[in-house]
Every structure is written in C-alpha cells, then in structure tokens.
C-alpha cells in the first residue's frame, strides 16, 4: 500500500503521534504480515459508511482501506550534508509517497527545542531547506547523465525531461519546493529522480490544548503552508484519547470543540493527499473498502481485488452508497432503478458499492 513519511525536527511529538496512530484500536489494521519494520505502521482509514453497510448486509466483518505511516527519524539542520542520521533519513523518505511534516507549536519548558525556541515558520523553513538541498544534490548528480543521453539519442521525450530538470533546479535554487511549484514544472517528467520536494506534502501542527480551538492561530498557521493541507492536534491529547472508551473520547473531544480526533483527520486527509479514493463491496461475510487511485476505471478497480477480475472483467453492478442507504437494501435500490450496469470505461466514484461480473 502507499505510505506517508512522518518527518519533523526532534522533540516535536512525532513518536507520540506515531505510537498513538499504531496503537489506536479504531485505526490500527489487523495486518497479516508480522515482519513489518518497527517504524512502519499500517492503519485503517476511518469510514463510517462501512458500519452502515454492514447493517444492511448483516456482514460478519468490516475491513477498512489501509495505508502506511513511516516514522522517519533524523532530520536536523545539515541532514542533507549527513548531519544526524542524514543519509539514512534521506533513503527512508525517498521510498514514501507523501510527506507529513510535524511542526511544533506547543510551548513546554520541559521539552527542549533543538533551535532554542518554538517558531513554526522557522522550523518549516529548516525542514524545507534540507529537503531542497537534498533534491539539488540529486539533480547535480543526475543532470550530466540525462543531458548526455538526450544529446546522443536526440529523443524528444528525453529532451523534455532535461528541460524540466533544469527548471526544477532553478526553482529549488530560488528556495521553492517542487510540490508548491507544480504550475511551473511538469512533475511527471521528474518522476525518475524521486525528488523529495516533488512528493505531496501535508502538515500537522502540534498545538497546546488551549490553542486547538483558536481560529486566529489556526488561520495564521494554515497560511504558512497553503495550499498544502494543515491538520491541528495536540499529540498528548491524541495519546490520551486512544486509551479511552469511545463515548468518553467523544466527550473529551467535544469539550475541546473538536468533532473528530486529530489522528482520524490525519489518516483521512493523508489518504486524500495520496490521490486515493475507495469503493465498497458488501455481503454477509464482510463489508469492505478497497483502495483505488482517483480516476481509476471499473476494470482497474476490479484488479485491486484480484488480477483475474480485471482480466475477465465483463461489467460492474453499481449503486451509490447514498442511494443504497436511501432505499434500504439492494433489491429496493434495483426496483427504484438506482442500480446501474457499468462497462469497462466507467470511471469509479468515491463510495460506489460494487459487484463485479467477470469471466474466469
Ligand atoms: P519526537 O522527537 O518528535 O518523536 O518527539 P516525541 O514524541 O518523543 O516528544 C518529545 C517530548 O515532547 C515528549 O516528552 C512528549 O511527551 C512531549 N510532547 C509531545 N507532544 C506534546 C504536546 O502536544 N504537548 C506537550 N506539552 N508535550 C508534548
């Protein structure tokens, strides 16, 4: 599955957050592979639709979509030059599909800040600078080879890649991340370089409890990172929430003026940042969410269940979740004309409830 790397300076609350994510009963997926590394956590994507679906179908089990979080230690000033865990850090982060920066906004005299005081905008700058420097190194290494290849092959596509890499180099030299420069350079052409700042970013601000509900503070922090998504939470509260029964957790959240836990927001928004969506299947055995890329076709969606389903795809019987709920059952939805037969060109929509027909 696709993964999100959690990065941030030391002492910002990364481990607290990561541990809460992976210990959370509501999110922690029952992962069949035991050998997963200690810094990798597989979590279920919260989806209240599954519960309702399982009632209609009297399903024995609910299986949510999953995604991975990787706790990436070791970013400090100078990481791109090998400071701290520099190179290991860069290798780990290169393998992830999106980057979640945890930024400290909480004050606590007992928790030292590596750079002396709490300053979110400076910390964002520090991390982005390291990622930008790492990308510039990657480009400096790769560019001579790419230029030579393009010259000898006189290949149009190769030339376009070289041009894009040169543009990227210029943007990075001016202090821009590539993710925020998608209007100035075609990120697809840079793909083979696995550049760090070309990955989608999202931000978690770790706030004091009292500041969580302060819209002025949230707006100021949100402005620092727009157009990337910002999530506001208190990692210490998140660690407490997972220890509480559901009703008490909800009470605590509501007392803080929150509707959804920070962890749940992080997983939900992270999933979206990865460019993913879900479709649903349901029956007496299980109600289940499956992960597909936004824009996937019906046969591609079938292929997520089994490659044979994709190869032998005939058609998909589809009802939207909302229509199914409104009608109360699949037979009712059929009678009401809400169930559609879709062919191989159909583009899946989020929340489609599906049954595939295929040849074996
Ligand atoms: P990491 O180095 O980024 O992984 O940070 P940790 O998760 O290990 O947290 C460092 C210290 O800060 C620990 O003592 C945490 O208990 C504390 N901490 C983490 N989040 C918060 C928070 O939201 N508020 C306060 N006051 N302390 C926190």
TrEMBL record:
Record-linked InterPro entries: ATPase_YchF/OLA1 (IPR004396), Beta-grasp_dom_sf (IPR012675), G_OBG (IPR031167), GTP-bd (IPR006073), P-loop_NTPase (IPR027417), TGS (IPR004095), TGS-like (IPR012676), TGS-like_dom_sf (IPR023192)
Which cofactor is essential here?
Answer: Mg(2+)
Output the CDD domains linked to this UniProt entry: TGS_YchF_OLA1 (cd04867), YchF (cd01900)
**What region holds the OBG-type G domain?**
2-275
Q: What range(s) does the TGS domain occupy? A: 275-358
Alphabetized GO MF terms = ATP binding; ATP hydrolysis activity; GTP binding; metal ion binding; ribosomal large subunit binding
Q: Where does ATP bind?
A: 11-16
Matching PROSITE patterns: G_OBG, TGS
Q: What does this protein do?
A: ATPase that binds to both the 70S ribosome and the 50S ribosomal subunit in a nucleotide-independent manner.
The entry sums up its family as follows: Belongs to the TRAFAC class OBG-HflX-like GTPase superfamily. OBG GTPase family. YchF/OLA1 subfamily.
Name of protein: Ribosome-binding ATPase YchF
Q: Which organism is it from?
A: Actinomadura barringtoniae
């Amino acid at each position: 599955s696709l993964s999100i790397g959690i990065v941030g300076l030391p002492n910002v609350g990364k481990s607290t957050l990561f541990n809460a994510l992976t210990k959370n009963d509501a999110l922690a997926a029952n992962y069949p592979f035991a050998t997963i590394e200690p810094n990798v956590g597989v979590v279920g994507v919260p989806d209240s639709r599954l519960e309702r679906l399982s009632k209609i179908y009297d399903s024995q089990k609910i299986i949510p979509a999953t995604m991975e979080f990787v706790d990436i230690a070791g970013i400090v000033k100078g990481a791109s030059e090998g400071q701290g865990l520099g190179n290991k850090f860069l290798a780990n982060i290169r393998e992830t599909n999106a980057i979640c920066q945890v930024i400290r906004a909480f004050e606590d005299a007992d928790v030292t800040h590596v750079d002396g005081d709490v300053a979110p905008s400076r910390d964002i700058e520090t991390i982005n600078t390291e990622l930008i420097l790492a990308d510039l190194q990657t480009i400096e290494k790769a560019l001579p080879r790419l230029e030579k290849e393009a010259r000898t092959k006189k290949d149009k596509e190769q030339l376009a890649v070289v041009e894009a890499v040169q543009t990227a180099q210029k943007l990075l030299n001016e202090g821009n991340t590539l993710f925020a420069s998608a209007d100035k350079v075609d990120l697809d052409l840079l793909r083979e370089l696995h550049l760090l700042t070309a990955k989608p970013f999202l931000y978690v601000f770790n706030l004091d409890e009292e500041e969580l509900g302060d819209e002025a503070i949230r707006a100021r922090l949100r402005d620092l990172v727009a157009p990337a998504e910002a999530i506001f939470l208190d990692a210490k509260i998140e660690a407490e929430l997972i220890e509480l029964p559901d009703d008490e957790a909800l009470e605590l959240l509501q007392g803080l003026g929150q509707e959804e836990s920070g962890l749940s927001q992080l997983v939900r928004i992270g999933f979206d940042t990865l460019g993913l969506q879900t479709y649903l299947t349901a029956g007496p055995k299980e109600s289940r969410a499956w992960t597909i890329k936004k824009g996937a076709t019906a046969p591609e969606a079938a292929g997520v269940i089994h490659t044979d389903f994709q190869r032998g795809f005939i058609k998909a019987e589809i009802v939207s979740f909302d229509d199914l709920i409104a009608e109360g059952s699949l037979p009712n939805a059929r009678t009401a004309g809400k169930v559609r037969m879709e062919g191989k060109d159909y583009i899946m929509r989020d929340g489609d409830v599906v049954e595939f027909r295929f040849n074996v």
